[in-house]
Fold:
Amino acid sequence: MKLMSLLRGFHAVARAGSITGGARLAGVSQPTLSAQLAELERHYQVELFYRRGRRVAITPLGMALRERTHRLFELEAEALGLLSANASTLTGELRIAAVGPYNVMRLLAGFRVEHPHLQVQVATGDSALVMARVLDFAADLGLVVERPSDPLLDAQPLRRQPLWLLAPTNHALASRPQVRLVDLAGEPFVVRDSGSTTQRVFEAALAQAGVTIRVALRVGSREAVREAVAQGLGLGIVADIGYVPGPGLVGIPFAEPQMATHAHLIWLASRRDARLIRSFAAYAGAATPAPATSRQRSG
Structure:
């Protein structure tokens, strides 16, 4: 029995409150995580969770163990930070969680050139999952598009990301150099789910301007928005850095300058002195990608 591996699985479920959420945090499959919990409970003949069908609820013993595993993994992270801070070469593994690939991959391209012996692991998800992975020591750094309010997290602003309109190339707005919110009244849109910061910023701007759009389709990712727009199912919204030119669609800047998200690099405040975190944060601050300056179209 590998105790540390089992404890990591337990801690992920205890933090997430479910097997499904715990599997996402731990980066393993649900059957694997369920088997780990069962092995831990069976070996020590304890009950850490109450099972109610597919739902779980933590027991008093489980709550006591969760407090200790949190301290355990915090100390583990501090020990690794102490060791890496005294190494002459930046080595080991850097784990990053990000809301999308665009900012993080551009930063990693240069950072890996400077530190070729470093291994990097990247996981993607929505802002809530990214912050949870950092808080649970499952990621060293996170990249989100809003400043977190959690006092346990430090945040470093990276770049302002203006919102762009995605339009099919045959749409009436596609030839314009800029669009205004009032131009969108009554237009059909492909929208993200409620977990999208980009979608929330857009909806707030619409409400402030008194503009109503028509929701034609709801999807779960920016990639799905892009494909739906390319297929003519409606208009879409994307941050400038997330605009990928392709057949059937065009990206158009908005005239309203206040419509933007703000990329932030986050880490646990208790780990701010870890060498891996300090090194990447310093590099990111100096090498933040420039915002897009012109649109590209592809027929």
